[in-house]
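Researcher: Here's a chain I'd like modeled. Treat it as a single chain, no partners, no ligands.
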Amino acid sequence: MVALFAHVVCAGATPALSPLTIRVQGLPSETATDPAAVAEQKVLTRFQEKFPGIQVQGAEGLRVQNMNTEATTMMMIAGGIAPDVIRMQFRSSDTYIQQGIVAPLDSFVAQALSEGDDIVAGIPPQLLPVLRKRGPEGTRHIFGLPTQVLVSGLYFNRELFRKAGLPPRAPRDWAELTDFARKICALGPQYRGLILPAGPSAAFHLMNFIRAADADAVIEIAPDEWRAAFNSPGAVEAYMYYYQLVEAERIAYRPGRHPSPEEMRSVGMLFRYVGDSVQSDPELWGFGAVPKGPRGSGGSEINSAILGLFAGIEDPARRQAAWNYIRFVTSEEANRIRVETLVDLGQAALLSPVVLRKFGFHEQLVMTQPDLEEQIAAATRDGKPEPYGKNCNLINLEMTYPLDQILLSRTIREAWSKGDMENVRREVQSTLDRAVERTNERMIGYVDPEKMNFRRQVTAWVVSAMALAFLGVGIFFIRTFSGSGASSPVASRSLIPWLCLLPAAALVFVWEYIPLLRGAQIAFLDYRIFLPSVFTGLDNFADVLFNAGFWRSILITAYFASLKLTFGFAAPILLAYMLHLIPRHKIFYRTLYYLPAVISGTAVYFLWGALFDGEGILNQMLRLMGFEAQRAWTQDPALAMLACVIPGIWATTGPGCLIYLAALKTIPEEQFEAAEIDGAGFWRKTVNVVFPGLKPLIIINFVGAVAAALQTSSNILIMTGGGPNGGTEVAALLIFFEAFTRLNFGTATAMSWIIGSMMLGFTVLQLKRLSRMEFKTAK
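Model: Modeled as a single isolated chain. Structure tokens:
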């Protein structure tokens, strides 16, 4: 290194400047070989040829099943690894804008216009309200540019349509959709008329029916003032039609996971997007517009990813580089490269005839579906943008709650079976009315002013009581551990013990008490990551105290903890006792039960998720025994929580039993021999010898198990995402969603403080027990 430096200096050369690196969301993997990824890689190569001083690096955060991409981006930003180019959805765009996460592009767009490039001119008019929005300061700006424009439609399985004697086209309306799905299901029990995926965002596909019924999820009642509207008469019809397909006739299937390619061959129809290319094999799948609703309206949705500029970029050169990337990858030149690459790779049949004609590939038009251009045009003509109002990244989740309630309602099932459609409609309307009120409050943040004043008065008393409770625990702690009842310290004036404690005390202060103090401040703020936070007083606590979902999550947490402690806490003790008693092959059995611990915790839950699926092994076994097992366990309200508990018990029982096994070894054999001489049997020896020997360890582990059970959320996020109908949304998961999905950091922190105050009684019991413990050195 020194020699190289000397050589450069002596030669009088100037070292080459390193390229400027920008971090971009949504880049294809460098190892991906599918045609679409190859086309994107060619676009990226061309960009770097035009801008050799810019190096593009992928920026991807942690992705978890059942967690939306917006939460992933927010965690990247909060963790200080924000991408320079942010990939937004329509539904999340307003959240990014109002939080000051993305920067206006007006100056860059004006610069392009001065260069003769009217970027906005080629954008479909339905997208302009999404891109040009009012910023946090009240002025409208362009905050992003769209990539490939997509429109939703209905794909149909050509092969199954031939088998069922159906015409080679998509159904035109709801009546035909129902008829076609029935005929597909009539081919055999393994065939599915229509796929409507389940999960926390199941309402994403419901939107096709809502739009076709002349309704919408949210409406703009005034400029930039939004209200939930999925309780309108049209929306009620859409929910009822969804119920008919899924529950009443069971001609639509709701899998808990994406079906494999082989399973997809048994599927008749599914909703998907089409853009510059179709998203399914054109040899097997045809495309049609979303079937029209009762009033003749189409339900197609127009969507696109939006590339925005991260507002936290301080370096002007990096900001310009990020804009250069956005401008190029959304340009006609980049689109031409994508189309040419796909044609060269023999993928012309996958391309939309619109782009083939646009870029001069007229000969390849014969390879596309004959009426595809007409179907895309019809879908686009009737299409509306994905909901893009305030906090609309949550709209699918909020609409899924009532959807699950309706699908699982016994009242609706009985009324439908009797043909009492009026009662069905009344129940659906009532469910949606409650859900809309909840959505307006939780998602949009609208509460009647008089109601809010009452909440503030009640909250003032509750918060005062919480403060007194924390103060009382603090006084109790000081009296307990500094009074005469505490054990006396070792008689020494040496500084060495204090110096040894200092690093640990410093770490605890930095990572525990500073965040605690910071959290106390955030609980009283409308906290924003980039923009100035606003003091809200007790409003965050009022929102929590009068949030029925929060109190429901507390009850769900108690239920989850009871299941986990009932089965999970006792299982390692019983297993250790059995391993202690078996006379032979102890090493083999210990190894066998410990093996699940070597598997990654996340992998464990994904494996069990496949077992619990609607077509999983467990349901197949139940069907063989004569049971009607239609739903995945994670979608059944009676089994979903159990499905979240079982994998954790299976994975942790083996490692947990080792601790108790070691403790059993410390019980003197003389005690067992004395018990046998006294005539004690198995149960008396267990009660009088084994349990007393394990009691201290059981008590210590029980305290930790209770704390762990009350804080667990990752396994539930993976298994159910809090569903069905919020039935597994424990408090810790609700806090996570509130912070990283709704970006209500103040409300999430207030939830934590309220739960902490509810745990004070348990804390006092812990402190009392700790104060009575004595630790002695061995002699």
